[in-house]
């Protein structure tokens, strides 16, 4: 990508932190790790709290208050053992107080603060036990009265780290602010005025000089302004990446008669969401630009059929397609779904997994290399070095979040210019979609195939286990099948496994041999064996750790029992529940839990009971968690924003995305006056210029 040179106006912000006064060999590495190597990085630290110091008399003190007191030194009490503090007793006209100085402080305290000297002291007061009724441990300031002005009445608190206190950071930030230049406004003037936001520099000033707790709120105008800057910079980067990807030429794939035939042979008609997704893909295929598309659809929304039809177009055009799934079970199910319909059109598909070995593998590899096999379906076995295609034109990644970026590109690298379709069963809200996948085009399957019964969902206390087992026994006598999920709760896989095994043994005693166990420790072949016995109905109750989470399809399963449901995230519970309700029979989901539930857990279970719409559940999940790493996104390449909070500021994300796309559409090279200012914005938020990770690495 073309990276313009950093504008000169930003040089002061990109100066190394050791150009600040007071930053030497001790502090520099600490700051680099904590904030980053540059002045800019320091300025992106957000105060997390605020100290408001009140001028008081000792008689008016209240526990925990931050105060400024005018006092007189009365008495020094050196420590009697190294673990005791140096104690200075002080008084004002209204009472007495002790100042405590722990290790490292000694006789110099009495030298500098002789008995009888007037002083101003600041710090947090606590109830005392010594001479004074009150005490301050480690005063923030202890100064002669004429230097009182050095004690700030309001001080921002920065997240500190070992060796780097909030006060040191505050001082350095104040110094850094002096070097922050005025920059030409990059935001749209009308938008800025409507929001009532300050300019960039003023916003930065106000970020670091909060006057009241309201200024710490993510919704404070200055914070929103800075968040929007960062979100806009990110959306611009994504929009540009998207444009670059499209620029790569890729084979034009025409709609084919074979695909129409495949579609007609399906035992169902496409939902309109499926038809829309297919139309999106075909429009991409027709354009001659490389497709980079995400197919987002809830569990059971029918992504496989869309993949099948896309693959059929590609294969019928004479090119090859690959479909990669994270597990052997899934790859096998895909192969079963695709092979028949494709073969009926004379298009050969084949399964590649780790189990394919020896002569059989050699034969398939050469049929793939010659182009005789049109569609390769498989696990990571597909990206091994010796797997070669004749003319791969489409790579489909199922359950894409289970793969790393490297895996995806390795599959794409097996052809010249390969269209990419990533499929995800984790419905995510649109705001997050824009953040995570802003560089992709997205099709959503927001509609379930018809004929599904809602899954009756109930929360049941663990105390009713015996009753549940009895009803389960009755259900399997009627020919129903059930999943019984044991959670991963401890850090030790072995402990979790033991819990699952114990449940398995207990259910076997109650229900006989028709109980199976599948968990992450089993080899692929063993897992497959158990799963296929479950699919065939030989096993009626499948006890599982969360391995079944991934899109396995067992239409006959009607009961989902989840132990310790309170331990799971909302999105995960939703995924698990999606394993049932796929056939035509009524299904149920029991969420077992140990009362009492926390308010959040109760809320989560309530939401699940109320709706089966994955997109809505994901949105509510965000609301409930309200922070941290809502959907385990850290691993999915979620940006590490410094100023924006993707949850608190999520209302700004779609606006930033629209703003970025519109701007690039009107002014692709960012040459207009606003465009030029925006280039400065992009450089300002260019973390490749070195963030904390660079420094740590
Ligand atoms: P997922 O999106 O989770 O991968 P699948 O592709 O496995 O979902 O589809 C789930 C089930 O729904 C399959 O049994 C499939 O045959 C069925 N199905 C898919 N599309 C339709 C449709 N339009 N009408 C009825 N059933 C459908
Ligand atoms: Mg699937």
Question: Any chance you could write out the topology, listing elements then pairs?
Answer:
Layout: H1 27-34, H2 39-43, E1 49-52, E2 54-55, E3 66-77, E4 86-92, E5 95-101, H3 108-112, E6 118-127, E7 134-137, E8 141-143, E9 154-157, H4 166-178, H5 189-195, H6 200-208, H7 221-247, H8 257-265, H9 272-287, E10 292-297, H10 303-316, E11 320-324, H11 328-343, E12 349-352, H12 358-370, E13 375-378, E14 392-397, H13 405-412, E15 419-424, H14 430-437, E16 441-445, E17 455-461, H15 465-477, E18 481-485, H16 493-511, E19 515-518, H17 524-536, E20 541-544, E21 557-562, H18 570-577, E22 587-593, H19 599-610, H20 614-625, H21 652-666, H22 673-684, H23 692-696
Parallel strand pairs: 2-3, 5-7, 10-15, 10-16, 11-13, 11-14, 12-13, 14-15, 17-22, 18-20, 18-21, 19-20, 21-22
Antiparallel strand pairs: 1-9, 3-4, 3-6, 4-5, 6-7, 6-8
Helix pairs in contact: 6-7, 7-21, 8-10, 9-10, 10-11, 18-20, 19-20
Bound molecules: adenosine-5'-diphosphate and magnesium ion.
Magnesium ion (MG) binds at residues 303-304, 398, 551.
């Amino acid at each position: 990508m073309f990276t313009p040179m950093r504008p000169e106006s930003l040089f002061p912000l990109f100066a190394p932190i050791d150009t600040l006064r007071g930053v030497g060999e001790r502090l520099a590495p600490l700051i680099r790790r904590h904030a980053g190597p540059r002045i800019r990085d320091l300025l992106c630290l957000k105060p997390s709290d605020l100290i408001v110091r009140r001028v008081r008399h000792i008689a008016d003190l209240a526990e925990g208050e931050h105060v400024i007191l005018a006092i007189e030194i009365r008495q020094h009490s050196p420590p009697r053992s190294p673990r005791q503090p140096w104690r200075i007793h002080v008084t004002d006209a209204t009472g007495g107080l002790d100042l405590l100085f722990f290790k490292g402080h000694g006789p110099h305290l009495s030298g500098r603060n002789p008995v009888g000297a007037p002083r101003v002291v600041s710090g947090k007061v606590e109830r005392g036990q010594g001479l004074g009724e009150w005490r301050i441990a480690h005063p923030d300031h202890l100064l002669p009265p004429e230097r009182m002005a050095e004690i700030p009445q309001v001080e921002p608190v920065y997240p500190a780290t070992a060796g780097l206190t909030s006060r040191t950071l505050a001082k350095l930030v104040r110094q850094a602010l002096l070097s922050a230049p005025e920059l030409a406004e990059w935001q749209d003037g009308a938008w800025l005025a409507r929001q009532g936001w300050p300019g960039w520099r003023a916003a930065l000033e106000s970020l670091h000089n909060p006057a009241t707790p309201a200024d710490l709120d993510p919704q404070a105008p200055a914070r929103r302004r800075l968040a929007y800057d960062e979100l806009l910079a990110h959306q611009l980067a994504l929009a540009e990446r998207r444009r670059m990807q499209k620029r790569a030429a890729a084979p034009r794939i025409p709609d084919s008669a074979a695909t129409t035939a495949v579609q007609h042979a399906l035992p169902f008609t496409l939902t309109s969401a499926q038809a829309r997704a297919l139309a999106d893909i075909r429009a991409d295929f027709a354009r001659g630009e490389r497709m980079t598309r995400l197919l987002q659809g809830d569990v059971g929304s029918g992504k496989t059929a869309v993949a099948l039809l896309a693959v059929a177009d590609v294969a019928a055009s004479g090119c090859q397609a690959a479909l990669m799934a994270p597990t052997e079970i899934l790859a096998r199910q895909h192969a079963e779904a695709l092979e028949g319909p494709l073969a009926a059109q004379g298009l050969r598909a084949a399964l590649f997994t780790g189990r394919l070995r020896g002569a059989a593998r050699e034969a398939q590899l050469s049929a793939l290399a010659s182009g005789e096999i049109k569609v390769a379906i498989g696990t990571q076995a597909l990206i091994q070095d010796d797997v070669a295609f004749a003319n791969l034109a489409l790579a489909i990644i199922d359950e894409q979040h289970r793969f790393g970026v490297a895996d995806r590109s390795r599959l794409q690298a097996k052809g010249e210019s390969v269209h990419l379709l990533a499929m995800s069963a984790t419905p995510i809200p649109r705001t997050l979609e824009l953040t995570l996948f802003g560089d992709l085009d997205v099709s959503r399957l927001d509609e379930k195939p018809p004929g599904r019964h809602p899954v009756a969902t109930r929360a049941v206390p663990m105390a009713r286990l015996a009753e549940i087992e009895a009803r389960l026994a009755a259900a399997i006598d009627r020919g129903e099948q059930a999943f019984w999920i044991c959670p991963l709760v401890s850090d030790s896989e072995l402990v979790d496994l033991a819990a699952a095994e114990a449940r398995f043994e207990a259910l076997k005693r109650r229900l006989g041999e028709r109980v199976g166990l599948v968990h992450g420790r089993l080899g692929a072949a063993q897992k497959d064996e158990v799963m296929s016995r479950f699919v065939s109905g030989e096993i009626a109750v499948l006890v599982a750790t969360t391995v079944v989470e991934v899109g396995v399809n067992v239409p006959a399963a009607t009961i989902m029992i989840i132990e310790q449901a309170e331990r799971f995230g909302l999105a995960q519970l939703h995924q698990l529940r999606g394993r049932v309700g796929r056939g035509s029979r009524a299904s149920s989901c029991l969420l077992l839990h140990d009362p009492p539930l926390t308010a959040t857990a109760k809320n989560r279970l309530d939401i699940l009971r109320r709706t089966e719409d994955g997109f809505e559940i994901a949105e509510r999940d965000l609301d409930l968690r309200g922070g941290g790493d809502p959907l385990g996104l850290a691993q999915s390449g979620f940006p590490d924003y410094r100023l924006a909070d993707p949850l608190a500021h999520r209302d700004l994300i779609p606006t930033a995305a629209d703003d970025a796309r519109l701007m690039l559409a009107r002014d692709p090279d960012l040459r207009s006056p606003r465009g030029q200012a925006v280039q400065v914005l992009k450089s300002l938020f260019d973390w490749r210029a070195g963030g904390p990770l660079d420094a740590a690495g």
